[in-house]
Fold:
Amino acid sequence: MGAEVFDRVKSRLAAREEEASLVHGILVVNLAPGAVREAAGRLRELGFDMFLDVTAVDWPGREPRFDVVWHFYSTTDFVRVRLKARVPEASPVVPSLTALYGSAAFMERECHEMYGIGFEGNADLRPLLLYEGFVGHPLRKDYPKEAEQPLVPYRD
Amino acid sequence: MTMDRRTIPIAPAQPSGRSAAFEYISTRKDELIGWARKFSIFPYPFVTACCAMEFMSVSSTPYDTDRFGAALPRFSPRQSDLLMVVGTVSQKQAPVLLKVWEQMCEPKWVMAFGVCATSGGFYQNYAAVPGIDRILPVDVYIPGCPPRPETVIDGIMQLQDKIARQKHAIVTRDF
Ligand code: SF4
Structure:
C-alpha cells in the first residue's frame, strides 16, 4: 500500500534515483539544506500532515559534520518519510519549517540548544530544556560528559 | 587585672532553685520532644521521576507508614517537616528544590529517596544534579533504584532514631 505513495513522493522530491532509498520501511530522501523547505511543502501537499521530529546527528571528523533529520507522517496513507540534509560546522543553518508545521517550533528549539543547529525563520530559539546561560551544546559529541553547569552553587 | 584561668568557677557556688530545676528538665526535654517529634513526621514529597512508583507503593496500605506517624503527606512545604526528594533532580530544577527547602519551617529533615537523589545514580551528564546533598543538607539516604518499600521504612526508622537523639532547641530558660 505504501509503495505507490513512496513512488509518488520519490518522483516529486528526489531529482536522482540514488538520493532516495527505502530503509526499514521509511522512505529516506537526502537533500541539500536549501531544498528542505520546498520539499516539506510538497510533502504537505502529498498528505504528510504530521510533523514527527527534527533532530541532528553529529559525525565528529566528517565534513560536513552534521546531519539534520526530519520525519514526516501521513495520517491518510500511514507511511513515514525522512529527510536528511548535511550542514557544516562553520554554518550549521537550515530553513525553519514553522510556517508549514506549527509543531516544528518546539522541536527546532530543542535541536538548536542540543546541537547548535540554526533554523532560519524561527524567531524563537530560546532554550527549551536547558536554561539561559548554558554554554555549549550538550548532545554534540565533543561536549564533555562531566561538564556540569549548576544553577545553584554546590555546597563545599 | 589578668584573670587566672584556674580561678574561674565552673559552676555557681549557690545554684538557685530555678536553675537546678531547669537543668533537670533540660536533661530530659530532648528525649521528650524527640519522642514526640519522631512520631509526627509530616512528609512533603518532591517527586520528580520513576521512584514515584515506589513512593506510591510505600504509601499504600500494606506498608502502613502510619505506624511511624509519617503517613500524611502535606502538599505545602510550609506545613511539613520532612522533605522527601523522590527521583532525579535536574540542574534546571535545583533552584526550585532549594526554594522548597528554604520555605520549610524548622525543625526540618531531608530524605534522599533512591540513588538518583543520593548521588545522581547512573547519571553523570550535563542535566542531572549528582546528589541533592550538593545543594542542601541531607539527613537520611535510601539506596536502591528504586528502593524497595522495606528499605524506605528502614530509612524512616533511621530518621526516627536520629530525631530521637537530636538536641531540640525549643526549651529555653523561660520554659
Ligand atoms: S533511583 Fe532509579 S527508580 Fe529512582 S528516580 Fe533514579 S532511575 Fe528512577
Summary: Chain A is about 20% helix and 25% strand.
